Amino acid sequence: MTLVAGACCLLALATGRLSAQAPDSTFLLSTRDVRRSPSPFLGNGRVGVVIPALGIGASRSLVAGLYEHGPDDVPRIVAAPAWNAIDVFDGTRWLGAEPPTDSSIRDYRQTVDMRTGTARTTYDWVDGARRTSVLIETFVSRAAPRLAAVRLELVPRQPGPMRVRFALAGWPPPRRLALARLKRAEPGWTPADIWYPGHMLVRTRAATARPGLASLSMTSVPEGRRTTLAQVAHVTWPRNLARAAAHATAAGDTAAVEIAFDASPGRPYTFTHLVSLVTSLETARPLAVAARRVEAAGTSGYAGAAAANVAAWARRWETDIVLDGDPALQRVVRSMLFYLLCSADSGTGLGIPPMGLSSAGYYGHVFWDSDTWMFPALVLTHPDVARSLVAFRSRTVPAARDNARGNGYRGTMYPWEADELGNETTPHFAVQNARSEIHVNGDVALAQWQYYQATGDSAWLAREGFPVIRGTADFWVSRATRDSSRDVYHIRNVVSVAEGLVGVDDDAYTNAVARKNLEIAAAASARLGLAADPRWREVATKLNMPIDSATGAWRTYAGAPDSTLGVITPLLSYPLGVPMSDEAKRTHLEQAVRRLADEAAGAMMGITLLSVDAAELGDRRLVDSLLPFSYQGHLRGPFLMLSETPTNNAVNFLTGAGGFLQQVIFGYTGLRLGDRGLEPAFPAVLPSRVSRLLIRNLHVRGRRYDVAVDSAGRRLLPHAEAAPR
């Protein structure tokens, strides 16, 4: 019985109306430590920005889809010229992004409000006998996708001259490594050594000022690419400032305005900074469009832009995950969903890099992380955003086809690491992954099929999804080799999901996802009334699977030693849904649990999904024991940023966030996507720390549902009927 088709039956189980929990402090991430680390980031899925400790000062900002390609380097996401380069002068010294080394910052507090996507920083700046109260609010608008805003309020406690400087400022070029040709990664390299953001070359800059208003503009292009980024900023301040003087300058990589005035004690002085960022990917005249957008935003001012942003985020939070019984876990879950949404939006046609728009981690490349780890967490909660992820793969079919042809295969071969064009961009030192970690093809196809299962959109399937599914299936037919003596097919010489296993044959995950891909292609053909290629079924049926005939459990790959058991096989149950006995599932899970210390020390990926398998087996004790391993060692700082591993401090690892959210959505609820929508697959299981789970506003085939899990079991109501709590 599907959850959608069987809604009437499930409604009979309801003991009362489901409800939403009113927003509370678990939407707030806050600290009083001015030296907090790491810094949080905000975004709207198109623009992301790191929030400095003091709220002001130039910080990294990334624009989705904006990449460069420097000499001998790999393509990488760029750092846009800083649009929040703000400095304050109190008459004796300047205050910028970095906290002073002395104790001059008092009563500090920085808060990220996830309900509104807004960062608020307050403190007193004490400089000798001078004291100034500072308040900064920053947001990247969810309502106006290319708009960002900063509001600065200063309250000096003594009279005297002050100055405030606002700038658009380019960044110096990075110290590049020749990653396109270096054959090995040096042991001493840190993430910072190789994951530097790409460089923008400033082409034009301008600055004008008149009483109460300055306009700054800049155009720049990514090194080695032709895309133009236009940035236009309007800075406003009170027109009645005493002895006010505004000086605008535009030179080199900077466009700036400096406002000088005489301050009165106890009087608040408010400055606003509205910025529009537009690329030539959107329009042939990005500078003119950016100017119009910031002008339009200026008509309603900061307050109007902020109100629109709050309303847009409120619409996003109509979908929420509410956990009763553990406020700390509640805050963690909300932060994971929030940071995912900060890095993805509808209509972009882009996948999500492992670190999203928070940093240039993994060069901003798109991996299978986007399809297998992040997409499932979004497809029911925010399907319009999830559609961008699958659209990226349909948009880049030509590049994947060229990649297959270049490697001697038919169909489409999706890159191990892709830039915004869908080209293979893996550094040369990992070239074996580019050539042989081919399970990504099946991961791409599975996400396409899951989008169809969730939406039932046959027109989309025919137009966008099926070309991806068909091309990947054709690749597997081309890539598999037939053993005529046994009448079986092998997929030889691959890099396993466990990437230390190089050159293995019949890798369990690779073969399983290849078979699923081929089966999906046949099912999609039938759904669309098309004739399936008979070779798909032939290879799928006869593909060799490394199953131990004595136990029914899977080996890691054909002939794998026992030392590798449990590395990847739990992924066969979820997310792949490979049919197998409960005994085999438990064997794989127990093998993984025995490796738990090693898994917990590695990347926050597979360990996040082990609880799904434990829940499927109805093992609540194991769900409880796995829960802390799946996130606690990766949390960093008061803003709950996720580190890729417990030790590398590479944040914010959205791959892990997506995996953890799947644990909640598809593990605790016992639900699965199936051919008729969302289907109950096994009884729901909650961790002991959670007394009640409510997932509000899941989108399934054009209808919306709330799902509740508590001691009475799992219940469902149409979202429109759910009463407030």
Known CATH architecture of the largest domain = Alpha/alpha barrel
Q: What structural class do the secondary elements suggest?
A: alpha+beta
Termini Cα gap: 29 Å
Strand order of the largest sheet: 1-9-10-11-12-19-16-15-14
Q: Count the strands?
A: 31
Number of helices: 18
Largest sheet: 9 strands, antiparallel
Strand content: 25-35%
Query: Might you state the CATH topology name of the largest domain?
Result: Glycosyltransferase
Broad shape: globular
CATH class of the largest domain: Mainly Alpha
Our count of domains comes out at 2
User: What's the rounded overall pLDDT mean?
Assistant: 94
Radius of gyration, in angstroms, nearest whole number = 27 Å
Low-confidence stretches: 1-22
Fraction of residues in helix: 25-40%
Indicate the topology.
Layout: H1 7-11, E1 28-31, E2 41-43, E3 47-50, E4 61-63, E5 67-68, E6 76-77, E7 82-89, E8 94-95, E9 105-113, E10 118-127, E11 130-140, E12 147-156, E13 160-169, H2 191-194, E14 200-210, E15 213-222, E16 229-236, E17 242-251, E18 254-263, E19 269-279, H3 286-316, E20 320-324, H4 327-342, H5 368-379, H6 383-395, H7 397-406, H8 431-436, H9 439-455, H10 458-479, E21 481-483, E22 488-490, E23 494-495, E24 502-504, H11 508-528, H12 534-542, H13 570-573, H14 582-594, H15 596-601, H16 606-616, H17 620-626, E25 635-636, E26 641-642, H18 654-668, E27 671-674, E28 677-680, E29 692-700, E30 703-710, E31 713-718
Antiparallel strand pairs: 1-9, 2-3, 3-4, 5-6, 7-8, 7-13, 9-10, 10-11, 11-12, 12-19, 13-18, 14-15, 15-16, 16-19, 17-18, 20-29, 21-22, 23-24, 25-26, 27-28, 29-30, 30-31
